[in-house]
UniProtKB/TrEMBL annotation:
It is a multi-pass membrane protein. It comes from Paenibacillus aestuarii. Residues 73-274 form the ABC transmembrane type-1 domain. PANTHER family: ABC TRANSPORTER PERMEASE PROTEIN MG189-RELATED-RELATED, POLYGALACTURONAN_RHAMNOGALACTURONAN TRANSPORT SYSTEM PERMEASE PROTEIN YTCP. This is Carbohydrate ABC transporter permease. SUPFAM superfamilies: MetI-like (SSF161098).
């Protein structure tokens, strides 16, 4: 197919605009990475742009020697992995139930769920609830109260509603119950939706900060984002004899940038493994007309 001159100009403008938007997003990250590998003289004099000056890995050595970083990293990984699994299980099961026309009171339940999109519970009632449930100073306080997002629930439900009724009927004819129908037929066809929800939930859990400040007092259970905030805003670095020697040749700004890289990189590495599910057709190969 031969494209017209207008189409070529339109495609060129799309490439330019999207390229500029992409650069505006990735250049700050490149600058942060460059600072994390630069020495104190280059950072303090403002000579670092998008390439390390006076290359050094001392900032990362400071981080690796700080046990609180590893504690926060461990907690964030636990919260992200198990929290996301809880989210996907709870969201998919409720969304499936609310998508089935034979289930009673589904419209009433949907109205109550929609109500939470408009009005959210205040902090004090939430805190009292967490306290009554005995979840204070536990990682469960950062996972169970956020088990279902109303917005994600409606998105997941829309995926289930788009599945052909004939597909459900064929499963029931083959003797599948509701649980077998969901786990063996419905969920495999909704991998794009599950991948999308998984990314959204995982990023939210990895960046969990305010809830940790409110519900977690014990230093053993703080997530990485709380530790990151302490380093960025209060310069509370790990203290040791080796770190004291390194600090003489490093800039606090470089250490802060290194912590930001460490806190950002893991969740960024997850995306490529789920990216293919965003571009796959949800119904490809599921039924034949």
């Amino acid at each position: 197919m031969i494209m017209s001159r207008g189409h070529k100009i339109f495609n060129l403008l799309n490439v330019i605009v999207l390229g500029l938007i992409g650069l505006s997003m990735i250049l700050p990250l490149i600058h942060i990475i460059a600072q994390s590998f630069s020495n104190n003289v280059a950072i303090n004099t403002g000579n670092v742009s998008f390439w390390p000056v006076g290359f050094t890995v001392g900032s990362y050595k400071i981080i690796l020697m700080d046990p609180t970083i590893w504690i926060g990293f461990r907690n964030s990984v636990i919260i992200t992995v198990f929290g996301t699994l809880i989210n996907l299980f709870m969201t998919s099961t409720l969304a499936y139930a609310l998508s089935r026309p034979e289930y009673l009171f589904r419209k009433t339940i949907l109205i109550f769920i929609m109500f939470t999109l408009i009005f959210s519970a205040p902090l004090i009632p939430n805190y009292l609830l967490i306290k009554q449930l005995g979840l204070l100073d536990t990682l469960w306080a950062l996972m169970l109260p956020m088990a279902i997002s109303a917005f994600n629930l409606f998105v997941m439900r829309s995926f289930f509603l788009n599945l052909p009724v004939e597909l459900m009927d064929s499963g029931k004819i083959d003797g599948c119950g509701e649980f077998r129908l969901m786990w063996s037929i419905v969920l495999p066809l909704t991998k794009p939706a599950m991948a999308t929800m998984g990314i959204i939930y995982a990023v939210a859990h990895w960046n969990r900060y305010s809830e940790a400040v409110f519900y977690i007092n014990h230093r053993e259970w703080i997530p990485l984002q709380v530790r990151l905030r302490e380093i960025v805003f209060t310069d509370q670095f790990g203290q040791s004899d080796v770190s004291s020697e390194l600090m003489m040749f490093l800039s606090p700004e470089g250490i802060k940038m290194a912590v930001i890289v460490v806190a950002t990189l893991p969740i960024m590495l997850v995306y490529p493994f789920l990216q293919k599910h965003f571009i796959q057709g949800m119904m490809v190969g599921s039924i034949k007309s």
